[in-house]
Every structure is written in structure tokens, then in C-alpha cells.
Amino acid sequence: MMAGAGEDLRALFRAGVRAALEAWPALQIAVENGFGGVHSQEKAQWLGGAVEEYFFRNADLELDEVEDFLGELMTNEFDTVVEDGSLPQVSQQLKTMFHHFQRGDGATLKEMASHITQRKCRVRATALNTTRETDEDDADSVEEMEVTATNDGAATDGVCPQSEPSGADSQTIKEEDIVEDGWTIVRRKK
């Protein structure tokens, strides 16, 4: 493989990684709500480079290793535990893209990045404050989030939920964002 072709493939893989991460609702929520602090946007950009580098340094990764790495980054950088079922999906997308990178299949990499971008959904979370009484009549603050996901593209694969056949343009999912010891939990609707 020529050096120029390798650099082109690496750029395609980089674009695919960024597309997958930018389309990931858990990361979108974490960034938009500043779960990573004032530099959440910069952390999200750094995350793309960190994931790319992780694949290059560990060429023969298993799916659970990728999931663990992404989960650890979300926990450490955004104080977010991802429990919505999207972690295995995003990990599989990244692993598949890296497989195509290793095979030198630039056309498939480009197609995957384009497909992910087309079906990317926008997520908006709105905090709703409620209180829960304890035995000592102290009120613990429980923060619930109303999460609205809209599909910007034509098709979805489960990372961005499809609208109900009621004709609505968006689907509303009620999620709890329970903060315990500084942890933020993101869960999928059951």
C-alpha cells in the first residue's frame, strides 16, 4: 500500500469514527448538557482522536474491549454511565469500520460514514425537577430528563429510535438522570 493511500484510508476511518460518535445519542446528551464540564465540546472532539488511536494501537480488539474503552471514557470524561443499550451498537460500528480500514476497503468506509450521518438523530434533553420524601422528612432531589429524539435521516438501526406510526415527527422518551455521588445514568426506555 502506498503512503498516500494509507493516509487516505486513515482519513476515511477518522471521518467514520467522528460520524459514529457524533450520531451517538448518549454522547450528544452528555455534551449538550455539559456533563463533561465547561469543556464538554472539546472533550467530544478529543474522544474521536482517542478512539481512533486506540484502534491503531490495538489492532486485534474484541467487541467487549471496545465497549469497555468507550464506557470508561464516558465515565471518566463526562461522568456518565451509558445504560441505554447504545454502547454495544456504537462499538460494533467502530469495530466494523476498523475491519474495513485494515482490509483497505475505503469505499465501504466512506459508505458507512455517509450512512451513519444520514440517519443521525438529534437529541434534546430537558430537566424536570421532582422531589421524593424520605423517612426523616428531608427531600432528595431527583432529576428526571425528558429526552426527545428526532431522526435527521431516512433510516435508523436502533441507535436513534424511529417515530411511532402516529405521524409525529419525533418520539419522546422519558429517562431518569439520577445523580448519585456525581454519576449520571442514561437509560433506554423499557
Report on this model:
This protein has 190 residues and is of the alpha+beta class. Helices cover 49% and strands 23% of the residues. It is built from six helices and six strands, in the order ααααβααβββββ. The protein has helices at residues 3-22, 25-32, 40-57, 63-78, 86-103, 106-118; strands spanning 80-83, 121-133, 139-151, 171-176, 179-180, 183-187. The strands form two sheets. It has a three-stranded mixed sheet with strand order 1-6-5. It has a three-stranded antiparallel sheet with strand order 2-3-4, covered by helices on one side. A hairpin with a 5-residue loop joins β2 and β3. The radius of gyration is 18 Å and the shape is globular. The N and C termini lie far apart (48 Å).
Query: Number of helix segments?
Result: 6
Query: What's the N-to-C terminus distance?
Result: 48 Å
Shape: globular
Strand content: 15-25%
What is the H/E string?
Answer: HHHHEHHEEEEE
Largest sheet properties: 3 strands, mixed
Percent helix range: 40-55%
Structural class: alpha+beta
Radius of gyration: 18 Å
Mean pLDDT: 75
- Count of distinct strands: 6
Strand order of the largest sheet: 1-6-5
Uncertain runs? 129-144, 151-176
What attributes characterize this protein structure?
single chain; 6 helices; 6 strands; 49% helix; three-stranded mixed sheet; 190 residues; three-stranded antiparallel sheet
List the helices and strands and how they pair.
Layout: H1 3-22, H2 25-32, H3 40-57, H4 63-78, E1 80-83, H5 86-103, H6 106-118, E2 121-133, E3 139-151, E4 171-176, E5 179-180, E6 183-187
Parallel strand pairs: 1-6
Antiparallel strand pairs: 2-3, 3-4, 5-6
Helix pairs in contact: 1-3, 1-5, 1-6, 2-3, 3-4, 4-5
